[in-house]
Design goal:
This protein is an alpha+beta fold. 22% of the residues lie in helices and 32% in strands. This is Nodulation protein A.
């Protein structure tokens, strides 16, 4: 029996189990389960996550999902896209909708989630992961290897439930995760997403 099979055999039915899945492999039930968890994790934005709508801005390319039985209890989305940093076009893995179900926050599930996000970024062969995070959650990302971009303004298209879009500029909260590169490889200058975030 392999280690993975042995682990699966000893796992209780409700112990969270992670999978990384391509967006095109998700079914309607998957989208509904993800949307239900995201609406609980982000109550101020619950109007975005209705029925099978399991995304807010751009749909991810990969999803990292933890389930307890049939219930989604943690989630992150990752998508490759080009951004402009200063004068440089750069491929990044845009990370978003990172969430752990409120009743399981503080259990270590978030750390497991970010380790699998790292693996997804490696799989997608992007030099950097990139995301926007509120100040209150930045320590969580910093603890798990993400690095804050100081003095950088990020520009992106905001999203609304009805699809309208306006340009937003934010002077803080931009983090990167170096992959097979080092931090100095990140170009100087402001960050232009040229579209929406995941």
């Amino acid at each position: 029996m392999t280690d993975q099979a042995a682990s699966a055999a000893t796992r209780t039915p409700y112990e969270p189990h992670f999978t990384t899945i391509a967006e095109g492999s998700l079914g309607l039930d998957d989208h509904e389960a993800i949307a239900a968890m995201l609406s609980r994790a982000f109550p101020d934005y619950a109007h975005w996550y209705q029925g099978p709508r399991s995304w807010a801005g751009m749909q991810p390319e990969l999803r990292v999902v933890a389930r307890s039985g049939e219930i989604v209890v943690a989630h992150a989305g990752v998508r490759r896209q080009f951004v402009t940093v200063g004068e440089t076009d750069l491929l990044v893995g845009c990370v978003g909708m990172v969430a752990v179900s409120p009743i399981l926050q503080g259990t270590g599930l978030g750390g497991q989630l970010l380790r699998l996000v790292d693996a997804a970024l490696d799989h997608l062969a992007v030099p950097f992961g990139a995301l926007e995070a509120a100040e209150r959650v930045q320590p969580f990302y910093l603890k798990h290897g993400w690095e804050l971009l100081e003095g950088v303004t990020g520009h992106y298209n905001d999203f609304t439930a009805d699809g309208a879009s306006t340009l937003v500029s934010s002077d803080s909260g931009w983090l990167i995760r170096p992959g097979n590169v080092v931090r100095p490889d990140w170009p100087a200058g402001d960050l232009h997403w040229n579209g929406q975030l995941v």
